[in-house]
Amino acid sequence: MSEMNESRRALLKGLGLGLATCPFALGAARAETAQVTAAPQQGAASAEDRVSPYGLHQPGIATNRPAWGMVASFDAIVDTPADLERLLRRLTERIRFLTSGGAVPELDPKLPPADSGILGPVLRPDALTITLGLGASLFERHPWLAPHRPAQLARMTSFPNDALDADQCHGDIALQICANTQDTIIHALRDILKNLPDQLVLRWKQEGNVPVIAPQPPGVVESARNFLGFRDGSANPDPADAALMERVLWVQGPGWAAGGSYMAVRVIRNFVERWDRAPLLEQERIMGRTKVTGAPLDHPTGSEADTPEYAADPAGDLTPLDSHIRLANPRDAGGERHLMLRRPFNYSNGVTRSGQLDQGLLFIAYQASLNEGFIAAQTRLNGEPLEEYIKPVGGGYFFAPPGFSNAPDDYLGRQLIDAIGRTPSKT
Amino acid sequence: MKTLPLFAALLATTTAPALAEQAPLDLVGPIAEYKLYVSENTDVLVEETRAFTEAVKAGEIEKAKALFAPTRLSYERIEPVAELFADLDAPIDARADDYEQAEADPEFTGFHRLEYALWVEGKTDHVTEIADKLQADIEELARRIDSLTFPPAVVVGGASVLMEEVAATKISGEEDRYSRTDLWDFHGNFDGAWKIVELFAPHVEDEAFLNSVEGNFDKVRDTLGKYREGEGFVSYEHLSDEDRRRLSALVNTLAEDLSTLRGRLGLI
């Protein structure tokens, strides 16, 4: 598969197309690679980058991951279907404005300004995407909503290595906010809080970023490194492969959820001091890749794009059987079913009471099947040697509804509201 | 909910930004009335604090506990203008977090120090001086009120300042953490903020705005009303997650709406 990716990449570069990783991306100067998780390169991003909010699917899933991202989780104040529709319409209005950019409204100076002003008087889109996710608690709270809960959406339950903190978990609504710069994602969050205070109450948020690397020679693509120093995202599915995306990412019809995707969010603390004191060879055997290039251990002089051949290494002499990449994606016959698309960010929060760094990974993965995607992968990973160095502390499962169009009356989540409207109301 | 996003409502009318120019002179009436309200509450506060501190000093723990929340009610009502007597507000009402050594800090005095003695330490013989100081501070406050100037911007702004405080550190149950009488304080705060809105509403032209604000105060009262018990309220611990979420949303919305009140009255 990776060879195919390489050749497609080469072909498209040859045609001078860049890669239209997102069919709705306008002026996406960044898109030199098909990998969502490619490291952003210096000088490639611009404040004028605009990722269209419109389309069959929400942006921020298969579109390129920019340097900054955040997940913010909210309690939703909603009693009736009309309340939910109002929330979704107002959120859509903010998303339309924020992702398009433009002048912020001027009010009488005796009033608080309409906008935080942290981006100045004229907003530029800065590759901003705001991706909505709906939590199981939202559906469960209301009899009129419960029948419409996406089939696999459930409250995240604890895995054996988890130490979940209730203050960093779950939520009725999650927003994944991504952009080229931190200021843009913070601005977007503050705008939404200011404009929907009566319906959205913030529960928790985690922001993160990925390192921006030096400009690379044409055709050279690197996955961004995480805070363990390894490239993260190497085996991600290719978003330019529409058929693959249909299978991996998008929930299929019938039903209102068609075209949506399950969002798994995990706040995973990394014990970085301890990791930095682990021998390099041990780090590499835990991960299953070389640290410098990301090449699989059975092709140590290759590149991160090489596919490991586990069939030739049944005893795990080269790539240990319990290494992270081998457990996460065994690349066996059934493995095709278990794909997901990851777009993680690194977070750095401060210092723990023990005087250690509170750093880790804001893991975000999208998939058409939560059970066969993230949950199956994490179940295989249970007990992996890497657990000594990581501790999941937060997150949740959400469902990202399908996208919306630029028709003036369309809005995010309309498919759900329509479905509720079609249900005979016996409640 | 019929709450308008205020800012959208404003946009509709302020393409050419302009608010009614309200000569502050017109606000003399409501200011005088508000001052009377503060003065009345302060008088009650002096008497009730006396009963409370006497009980503390006499070691009547149960009686003092019963008087704690009702005594604070008058203080919480006038909190919108606490910045006019900030030097007294700190020793009267500061919390342990305001001090580096928290509860052990010698600077930690006032209501919450006594609350800590009553509910956590279970004794009062070591806080008689703190009780005397609280009474003295409250009496000093009462003496000052009559001669205190009430700038309209501070009074009107006080309503939103209080909402900010509730949103930032009260809704989480930080205020009365030892006694869990937070709902009494909420009630006092909302009463006090509503008084300001009520007095100045006739000078605000935007009906939609007023309806929204009034509607949200009503919803707060309805929500708190579910937790009434006797003359007051049940423990903060009984507040359901669902209602805390609702109160958060209402307080945040009121904070947004009331943040425009000064501007709407032409005050800076």
The helix-and-strand class of chain B reads mainly alpha
Can you tell me the CATH topology of chain B? Answer: A middle domain of Talin 1
The tally of beta strands of chain A, per DSSP, is: 13
Number of domains of chain A: 1
N-to-C SSE series of chain B? HHHHHHHHHEEHH
DSSP E strands of chain B, number: 2
**Regions with little confidence, pLDDT below 50 for 5+ residues of chain A:** 1-33
Function (chain A): Involved in the recovery of exogenous heme iron. Extracts iron from heme while preserving the protoporphyrin ring intact.
Protein name (chain A): Deferrochelatase
Domain Dyp-type peroxidase C-terminal (chain A): 224-403
Binding site for protoporphyrin IX (chain A): 233-235, 289
Could you write a compact summary of the structure shown?
Chain A is an alpha+beta fold and 427 residues long.
Task: Please characterize this protein's 3D structure.
- The complex is a heterodimer of chains A (427) and B (268).
- Chain A is α+β, with helices and mostly antiparallel strands and 427 residues long.
- Chain A has one domain (3-22, 37-422).
- Chain A is 23% helix and 19% strand.
- Chain A contains ten helices and 13 strands.
- Chain A has helices at residues 2-14, 81-100, 136-141, 182-195, 242-248, 272-276, 280-287, 324-328, 371-381, 414-422, and strands spanning 25-26, 50-51, 68-76, 102-103, 122-123, 129-135, 173-179, 200-209, 261-270, 341-342, 345-351, 357-367, 390-400.
- In chain A, strand 11 and strand 12 form a beta hairpin.
- The radius of gyration of chain A is 21 Å and the shape is globular.
- Chain B is mostly helical and 268 residues long.
- Chain B has one domain: A middle domain of Talin 1.
- Chain B is built from eleven helices and two strands.
- In chain B, a hairpin with a 2-residue loop joins strand 1 and strand 2 (232-233).
- Classes of the chains: A alpha+beta (427), B mainly alpha (268).
- Chain A binds chain B through residues 75, 77, 83, 90, 105-112, 114, 193-201, and chain B through 1, 3, 5, 7, 10-11, 14, 17-19, 216, 245-246, 248-250, 252-253, 255-256, 259-260, 262-264, 266-268.
